[in-house]
Amino acid sequence: MSSDITKIALRYINRANRKFQPSWKNTYPWLECNTQNNRMFCVLCHASSKKNVFAMSDFTNIKLYAIKEHIKAKDHIDSY
Ligand SMILES: [Zn+2]
Q1: Handedness of CA 30, 15, 59, 52 (dihedral sign)
Q2: How far is the CA of 51 from the centre of ligand 1 (A)?
Q3: What's the CA gap between 9 and 60, in Å, rounded?
Q4: What pLDDT is stored for residue 70 in this prediction?
Q5: What is the mean pLDDT of residues 29-37?
Q6: Where is the C17orf113 probable zinc finger domain positioned along the sequence (predicted)?
Q7: 45-62 pLDDT, tens per residue?
Q8: Where is pLDDT greater, at 22 or 11?
Q9: Which of 6-10, 33-37, 74-78 shows the highest mean pLDDT?
Q10: Do the beta carbons of residue 3 and residue 14 sit within 8 Å?
Q11: Using CA atoms, how far apart are residues 5 and 8, in angstroms rounded to an integer?
Q12: Which of 3, 28, 43, 54 has the lowest CB atom count within 10 Å?
């Protein structure tokens, strides 16, 4: 019984995590999201025509973890 509840809760959390959180923009002002097709991209990398997933405005893996990884990417640091 309790494991069922955990499963449902996890499913909910996973779904919530895949949606762009507007509050992320406070922490990462270069982050943009196309809410029409639920894709996020990095304004800096996009403007610098970088070749990473964040620059392509084609990124559907809407996760905070991915954003935190992107901060450390050389492309991103170079785009500043
Ligand atoms: Zn970037």
Answers
A1: positive
A2: 10
A3: 22
A4: 94
A5: 88
A6: 28-79
A7: 999 999 998 998 777 778
A8: 22
A9: 74-78
A10: no
A11: 5
A12: 3
| Residue 12 three-state SS | helix
* Residues in contact with 42: Cβ distance below 8 Å, sequence separation at least 6, in sequence order: 30, 31, 32, 54, 55, 70, 76, 79
**Cα 35 to averaged position of ligand 1 atoms, centre (Å):** 19
What six digits make up the tokens of 15? 């779904």
One-letter amino acid for residue 13 of the chain: I
The full set of domain ranges for the chain reads 2-78
Helix (H, G, I), strand (E, B) or coil at 79: coil
From the CA of 23, how far away is ligand 1's center (Å)?
Answer: 18
User: Tokens 């779904």 map to which residue?
Assistant: 15
**Amino acid at position 12, single letter:** Y
Q: pLDDT tens for residues 2-18? A: 678 888 877 766 665 56
